[in-house]
Structures are given as structure tokens and as C-alpha cells.
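Quick note —
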Amino acid sequence: MIKVGEALPAATLMEFVEVEGNGCSLGPNPVDVQKATAGKTIALFAVPGAFTPTCSAQHVPGYVAQAEAFKAAGVDEIWCLAVNDAFVMGAWARDQKTAGKVRMLADGDAAFAKATGLTLDLHGKGLGLRSNRYSMLVKDGKVVTLNVEAPGKFEVSDAATLLAQAKG
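Predicted structure written out below.
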């Protein structure tokens, strides 16, 4: 498992873009993790799946509600990662009203989850290999804090915990 002080792995996530912009076309766009984190402070959290109960009712809404507080604490971007495709993450972003607050990034084949060692095996529950629930503060591509949840728990990866660490 990735540790505090280590660099994030080389990986490409996908982001569904609703509005065509500078260098971004409509639909899924690649996000090179190393390039996108260079020189930035990122509040990154990962969930087992889009539209799942805890993720939709508590995890994402907490980060959306605290987006301005994260910016005030020096965080450039908030990322939500899940082992889903970019289309699902885009639909979930619309549902959760994350625009301008939280980037909803797809780790469709779990490459990032595998590379960080933060996978969750839910094959017996019909969900396959997923990401564990966690949060981390990343500065210039390196992990500064890491909060990994025990299976089935939501106690340390919430927005309030990571915000306190970002302010610390």
C-alpha cells in the first residue's frame, strides 16, 4: 500500500467533461495523475462506487459542502475517485452537483487503485474489484496524509478529517 511521503503512481484517470473548454472536449478526457498533481495541493478521496448509499449520502456531499473551506486551506482541487467509467462518474457528478467543486474521476479498470495498493475485493457481492474508501492530501504529487477506512466503515476519510489535516 502507498505510504505517506511516496509519490502517486503514473496512471491515467478519465473525467467526463460537460462543457467544452481549453484543451477539453465534451465527454471523457484523460487526466495524467502526475501532470495534474504537479505543483498543486489535492484533496483526494476514493469510494467503492458511484451512486452507492454511503458515498452518495455522506462522502461526496461532505466534500462538496466544504469545497470553499478546502480552497481557503490552500487546496487547489478536490478529487473523487471510483472504479467506474467516466460516463457513470459524469452522471454522478450531475446528481451530486459537484461542478466547480469536486472533480469526479474514473479509475475504470482499477489501475490507480491497484498501483496504490488500495483495492477492495467485492467479487462476492457482484461488484468485482473496487477502490477502498480512503482520503489523502497530496502536495506536488506526493502523499502528505493518508486515511484508509476499515471495511464497511466511514470514520476517517470524511471531509472534516481531511480538511483538519489540510489546515494543520
